[in-house]
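Standup notes, structure subgroup. Blocker cleared on the beta-D-galactopyranose input:
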Amino acid sequence: MGLKKFTAALAISASFFAVGAAKATNIEVTHWWTSGGEAAAVAEFAKAVDASGDKWVDGAIAGSGDVARPIIISRILGGNPMGATQLNPGKDADDLIAAGLMEDISDVAKAGDWANILRPKSQLESCTKDGKVYCVPVNLHSAQWMWTNRKVYEDAGIKPPQNWAEFVAAAPALQAKGIQPLSLAQGWPVGLLVNDVLVALAGVDNFVKVYKDRDVALASGPEFGKVFEALASVRQFVPADKMVPQWNEAVALVIQGKAGANIMGDWAGGEFQVAKMVAGKDYDCLPGLGVTPVLNTGGDVFYFPKSKDPAVTAAQKKMAATLVTKEVQVAFNLKKGSLPMRADVDLSAANDCMKKGLAILDHSKAVFPNDIQMIDRDSLNQINDLFTSFMATPAMTAADAQAKFADIIKNAPK
Ligand code: GAL
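Run returned:
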C-alpha cells in the first residue's frame, strides 16, 4: 500500500472509530428507587446500559412514586423530557401517549418476541395502546404481603404469626413489652395496608368487583363493612404519632426489631436482603397476609419520551431490549424483591419469598390487576387520603369511612 492509500485508509478507520465512540449516547433515566434495596437493584440496570455502549445518567427522585410521578409527567409535558423513565404499568402515561409524546417501541417488542416471552400478559398489555407498544415491563411486584420479624415474637414467647388473625391475636403481647405490633408509613402505604386487608378479608373477587367493575352496592355493603370494622380496631396497634414518613423506614422498624410486622409490597424484600436477613429464618413474608396466597400485577415499566435526536431514539430502543435480557432480568429482580418478566431464566438463587411468588403466579385465579390498572390516579389519591384520615383519626367511624369510600368509587371515571 502506498503512503497516500495508507493515509486514506487510516482516515477512514479513524472516522469509523469516531462514529463508534459517538454512539455512546447519554440517557438520563428518572425513577424513584432510592431505598437501600431499590438502589442495589437499579444499579444492575445502570451497569447493563453502560455495558451496552451507552451511558446511564441517573435521575433518581427521592420520596417514592407519589413525589416522582408528577415531576416526571410535568417534565415530559413541559418539553424537557428525560431519555427514559420508570412508571407503574397502568393508566399513568395514557395522556402522554395520546398527546404523541412517547416513543413507539413496537419494533423492539416484535424483534424480542415480547408477546410470547414476557409474562404475565397483563404487563405488556398495560404498555400497549391501539396495538402499539410504548413501554417495556421489567418486573412483577405485588402489594399483598405481610412482613414479620420472627425474633420479636419469639422473644415475647409467641409463635411468629402466619396470618392476619394470628398477627391480630399476638399484638397485645407485643404491646405489653413496649413493642409496636404494626409499623406504618404515611401516605400511599396506608392505602396499601387498607387495600391489602380488604383483599384478605373480603376476597379478591369482591375487591376487583369494586375497583374494576365499580360495584357500589358491594363497596357500601356488609362484606366490606366488616373489613372497615376490623381496620378500625387495628388503629390501636399503630397510633398516628408513630407513623413514619417513608415506606422503607416502616420496614426498617421491623428489621431492627422495633415493630413486629409491616404490610408492604414485595419490594420490602430488597430491604431485608440488604440487611442480610434470611426469609423463613429471620423473617416471614406472607403473601395475601397469610390468608389466601394472591398476587396483584403491579410492577415497573420504562417509557421513552420522544426525542428529536436519532442517536437518543436508538439508545432508547437498545435500552428497552437490554432490560429484558435474561441476565439483566435475573440480576435486577433478585435484588429488587420482584418477579422476573420471563420464565426462561435461571432462578436457582431465588429466596423463599420469590419462590412463594413464583408458585402463586402459576395460578391465574390468584393473580389480579394492580389498582392503577383498574382505576385512575386521582381517585386512588382520594382513596389514600381517606384511608389515611381513617387510620389516623380514632374518632372516624368505620361506617363513615366506608360511606366516603363507596362515594369515591361511584364518582371515579370509567
Ligand atoms: C412502586 C414500585 C416499586 C417500589 C415501590 C416503592 O411503585 O413499583 O418498584 O419501588 O414503589 O418505592
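Discussed briefly. The pocket of beta-D-galactopyranose is lined by residues 32-33, 38, 64-65, 88, 141, 247, 267, 298-300 (CB under 6 Å).
Next: hand off to the docking folks.
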